[in-house]
Design a protein that fits this description.
With 684 residues, the protein is α+β, with helices and mostly antiparallel strands. The protein contains 15 helices and 32 strands. Strand 1 and strand 2 form a beta hairpin. Helix 3 (84-138) runs parallel beside helix 13 (578-591).
Length: 684
């Protein structure tokens, strides 16, 4: 045929191989057979030939096995050796997928906790709504005893429902009583309901890895263990043992490297390992500046750095690059402009549990050996503080006294915080013959107490004109006391002390009770005891703790050489919270105390607002959780897609390659069979 070139090559003992191709110019047997088998184009030894043939056969078999593995597993990369680069990327992707999937599981578990928390808070809301309805009905003037008892029973049922909600469990974890609690945190007793839980809340990571709470605690939802007393700040003084992290009222001082000079070269002083102000003192006093030593004086609120010899000179102090110790200690003087001594104030340490009592009160120390009294309801507990040396010792003594309170250090104010654990009773903290409670800043009734705080924040009702109560001295002299203009208990004491008719030797001396709380009146004995009498419509004497409700007057006693009249605690502290409100409300409804019912209605509304607000917060968390969970799921899908690209096999490609390898294997086997029959004559 025109244009057709026929080429053939005849090999010994081989059939003629032909190839028909209009464009064919040259046929290379080595080149055309190389994809199937590396046939030697030169004379080689028989062992080398066999080795090359077997290598080709093994390569084909291994390739077929690898492709069959890819077909059976669907994975292109099964071992790291299959594709090290892709395997490395796959490991990173698998780690990311595992993390995202764990976050998604966390979100699912947290969603269950939110659902359980919402159900518990829903029960609280329902209980408060029921109690609110009964309270509105009980506020009527005309109700029979049976009607009051029925309404009180309704409130009691609401109280028990709220307690049950507070004791709710989910997966063996307390929902409102503290995540780590294993027993019911609320315990109903004859004298009230005691809370033994904690504020622990479980937390987890979801979405972008942010830590979120998986619930709320009883303090947030029910007002349990509320703070009944936040003591005044306990001022500590600087000492060698003061930790650097506690200085500057808790802001801390950052250890570091400083440079000191006497006007010549700077000397580097390493204070990075210092942990107390004493460490800094020891290291600085060991510095030698051309034969001159330094002295660090420690005061109650600061330090003074000077030359030991007291002579003048230059004293330059600078922070090394990136350090802040000299700046924090307020002794930075990098150019030496300020002459020695370098005086720094404002380093007073914050009060911690480790603070010695001897360092309180600005370094003067406090005496708490007399102990103090805690009154809860009708029970009085004496706290022995005779063996205490630190703030921690005081807290332990209070917490182990048997009183249903929890004493802690308030990190913000630096005072002692007292939390009430028994609902339905009043609390007060007073003296035990000394000044321990006052020194610790936790006496609940002091001269600074404002009159507006009396009667649970309602304050006294005063007469429009004239005196609000009268004091009849043992000698018969009557002191009419008018409280108009008075703002604090000290103002009341001064009105009595400075009364125009109370300036003789038979005068009445007012003060605070040395034991417990309340006001004490002392006068020389006479023909009659000290008497306090209500005047008009004013209830000032009642609010000040002298008279009981609806009592007209009260008489004192004679103790030894003096006449004494002691009042009760004028500012008792309520435990607070939903459980306390419902407990008091039940008692007020049974007694028909309309003024108390009206006062507790406001508290009940506040409790309902708190519960609803917390429930709304849980709802917002749940909504955000759905968004974060969806984002985590989307991220997991994206990572799995990337992982599939790296390690999954393309089945169409694998099948095609498998067919090619099978063809190659078959050709190799045939060629091996044919070459095995060759002799030396075939190469001549």
């Amino acid at each position: 045929m025109p244009g057709l070139t026929i080429v053939w090559i005849e090999l010994p003992n081989r059939p003629i191989i032909t190839r028909r191709d209009p464009s064919f110019e040259f046929f290379d047997p080595v080149k055309d057979f190389m994809p199937l088998l590396p046939i030697a184009s030169s004379r080689v030894s028989e062992p080398l030939k066999n080795q090359r043939l077997l290598s080709q056969l093994n390569a084909d078999q291994l390739a077929i096995q690898r492709q069959q593995d890819q077909l059976s597993t669907g994975k292109r990369v099964v071992r790291v050796s299959d594709d090290p680069a892709a395997a490395g990327r796959a490991i990173i992707l698998q780690r990311g997928i595992g993390r995202v999937e764990q976050l998604s599981r966390n979100a699912t578990a947290t969603e269950s906790f939110y659902t359980a928390t919402d159900a518990a808070l829903g029960r609280v809301d329902a209980a408060l709504t029921e109690a609110r309805g009964a309270t509105v009905e009980a506020a009527q003037n005309i109700l029979s005893s049976d009607e009051r008892n029925a309404l009180a029973a309704t409130i009691r049922g609401a109280l028990e429902s709220a307690v049950a909600a507070g004791n709710s469990l989910f997966r063996d974890h307390q929902i409102l009583g503290g995540y780590l609690e294993t027993q019911d945190p609320l315990r109903i007793e004859t004298s009230g309901i005691v809370f033994s839980g904690n504020d622990a809340v479980g937390k987890t990571k979801i979405g972008g890895g942010d830590v979120i709470p998986i619930g709320v605690n009883g303090s947030e939802a029910l007002g349990l263990a509320e703070t009944v007393l936040l003591g005044s700040p306990l001022e500590s003084s600087l000492a060698r043992s003061s930790r650097l992290e506690d200085l500057r009222d808790g802001k801390g001082v950052r250890p570091g490297l400083i440079r000191i000079s006497d006007g010549g070269n700077f000397v580097d002083v390493n204070l990075r390992e210092a942990s107390t102000i004493g460490d800094i003192e020891d290291i600085l006093e060991a510095v030698d500046l051309n034969g001159r030593s330094l002295t660090l004086d420690i005061s109650a609120d600061g330090i003074t750095l000077r030359y030991t010899d007291g002579a003048p000179g230059t004293l330059a102090v600078a922070d090394a690059t990136g350090e802040y110790l000299a700046q924090d200690l307020s002794i930075s003087n990098p150019l030496g402009i300020n002459p020695p001594p370098l005086i720094a104030n404002g380093l007073r340490p914050s009060v911690t549990e480790a603070t010695p009592l001897s360092k309180l009160n600005g370094g003067a120390g406090i005496d708490v050996s007399a102990g103090l009294q805690i009154k809860q309801g009708s029970q009085v507990i004496t706290v022995d503080l005779s063996d205490t040396n630190t703030v921690a010792d005081v807290l332990v003594a209070i917490n182990r006294s048997g009183a249903d309170v929890r004493a802690e250090i308030d990190e913000v104010s630096g005072g002692i915080k007292i939390r009430a654990l028994r609902s339905g009773v009043d609390y007060s903290i007073g003296e035990n013959g000394g000044l321990a409670a006052t020194a610790l800043g936790i006496r609940s009734a002091t001269g600074a107490t404002r009159l507006s705080e009396l009667r649970y924040g309602i304050g006294p009702v005063l007469n429009d004109f004239g005196p609000d109560f009268s004091i009849i001295r043992p000698d018969g002299v009557q002191l009419d006391v008018e409280l108009t203009g008075a703002e604090t208990i000290d103002d009341v004491l001064n009105l009595i002390r400075n009364h125009p008719q109370n300036q003789d030797t038979r005068r009445v001396i007012p003060g605070l009770n040395p034991v417990g709380n309340g006001i004490e009146l002392v006068a020389p004995p006479g023909a009659q005891p000290l008497v306090i009498r209500r005047v008009g419509a004013s209830n000032a004497a009642e609010a000040l703790g002298f008279l009981a409700k609806n009592q007209a007057e009260v008489s004192g006693t004679t103790i030894g050489p003096v006449a004494v009249l002691s009042g009760g605690d004028y500012v008792p502290k309520e435990a607070g919270g939903t459980i306390d409100t419902l407990t008091r409300l039940e008692a007020a409804v049974r007694e028909g105390d309309l003024s108390e019912i009206a006062r507790l209605q406001t508290r009940l509304d506040n409790d309902f607002d708190r519960s609803s607000r917390i429930r709304g917060r849980v709802g917002v968390w749940s909504q955000n959780l759905d968004v974060l969970k969806s984002a985590a799921d989307d991220q997991a899908i994206a990572l799995k897609s990337q992982l599939s690209t790296e390690v999954d096999a393309d089945l169409a490609t694998v099948i095609s390659q498998l067919q090619q390898r099978q063809t190659s294997l078959e050709a190799s086997l045939k060629l091996i069979g044919q070459t095995a029959r060759l002799s030396l004559l075939d190469f001549l």
